[in-house]
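Re: the 143-residue chain
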Amino acid sequence: MNIAKIMIPKANTALLMSTNSVRQGLEKMRFHGYTAIPVVDESGTYCGCVSEGDFLRHILATGSLDMKQHERYQIKDIIRQEFCPPLRIMASEAEVYNLALQQNFVPIVDDRNCFCGIVTRQGILRYMAEQLEMARSTAVAAG
């Protein structure tokens, strides 16, 4: 599997900076309608993902629904490092499938741990459908 072929590149992925405010994160998540968003630092290094649950835990911990209050906190203050682990760009097909079964999308990083993009379940299914169609075409041509 060529991960780069099925990956949604960083430029086309909604992501947050670790220094964004919690308010900015909430607004971006609401705008896009996602349940989780990748987070990178200033150098583009993948930090993890932040989820709706992370925002909810933060709101409950602060006891405030006032969006202005959440400008004081940064995404790096609420992110869970172990949530939504990434795969390297050269990961095997089996690794991609296994991780995609456990999370909504698979973040992809390079050898420097810089964020490259994401692989979605939809992208994986499209790839598998293409492979199946090619195998059928080959079988029909062969026989």
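DSSP finds five helices and seven strands in the chain.
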